[in-house]
Amino acid sequence: MNGNEPAPMMAIDEDDEFFLTLTNVGMIMRPDLFEKHTVHFHGYPNASSFYDGVPDASVAINIGASFTYYYLAPDAGTYFWHCHITPPEHLQMGMVGQIFVRPRQNRVPAGQSLYQSLVLQQKDLRTACNDILCSTPLPPQNNVHHGPNLSGTPTLYAYNDGDGSTAYDVEYPVQIHGFDPNFHFVGMTFNPEPFTDMKDKFFMLNGRSYPDTVNPSPLSTPASDGVPRFSQPLPSLINIPVGGKVLLRISDLDVTEYQTLASLGMPMHVVAINARLLRDMAGNDMTYYTNSITLGGGESLDLILDASDTTKYRSGQVFYLYTPNLDHLANDQENFGGLMTDVHICRSVDPKTKVCTL
């Protein structure tokens, strides 16, 4: 997908109409393969299976053809997208990316009640939000207002929470992925891929293993035509402003392993799983704090790292987000690699560029 690992990331707002054109240009290295491709938004509530990307019920794109997908963004959350043609192979080859849907609550005018705005939104959408189909039940009535964040701009939210519980200052995508070099070598040497023997040996965050995860710059790789191109555009370095919060949008696109990430010294506040806010149908809070999370392939999770206690978290401190599975903390049996990145406490962080000022 544009030669990127992960594939290009997309972010849209609830109620947006989103058009995505996929063009299948084939592969220079394997002109003998007439591979079709699709785009499947995993877990995404499509109105029609025609745009779902599963070839059994929708369109698959041949080499030399293009197809435009249409989506209406109905529910906030962290989703991901991938090709649904021979999924284990094409996911392993990097045809996986993230898509965020940001909530209507971000558009609440400053100084207005989040709860009352959520009530009005549901009336407009003709949803009472009191049955099992409701993705975000109303919280207990409260007087939380939409106020400014650390930079003075309106606060952002991960979900339509109605009480400010998913507020954050900076967000980061964290895509977990695995890589089996033997599977790739066999595929590129015109041999049948050994699907049953697939076993990841490199473990990556946003397409990189440590220490590349903490490099803030895009990484380039010589393409098959010999020209260097940016292949890994997203670092995994996490910068948190003092007194602020960051939202980590985590997805696991691994096809052979469960993956665990741990954070010591800075608890994880898990607010949503699989694009659903953790709240029961009565509106009670079911979010929780933990030091580690475990995801299987095809799962996503939203968590907040909170540095608002300035007596505990000060500028210049460094924490770590890493896997406690030691065999996933190496690059094919070499030391110091795999699923690990830094978490820096900064004096300030630009929410767009993610640049840290110490």
Our estimate of the beta-strand percent is: 25-35%
Figure out the total of helices. 3
Number of strands: 24
Whole-number tally of structural domains: 1
CATH fold descriptor:
Immunoglobulin-like
Whole-Å distance between the termini?
36 Å
CATH level 1 name: Mainly Beta
The CATH architecture name reads Sandwich
The CATH superfamily is known as Cupredoxins -  blue copper proteins
What report would you give on this structure?
With 358 residues, the chain is mostly beta strands. The protein has one domain (10-103, 168-357): Cupredoxins -  blue copper proteins (Immunoglobulin-like), CATH 2.60.40. Helices cover 7% and strands 33% of the residues. It contains 3 helices and 24 strands. The strands form 7 sheets. Strands 9, 10, 14, 16, 17, 18 and 20 form a 7-stranded mixed sheet that branches. The two termini are 36 Å apart. The mean pLDDT is 87.
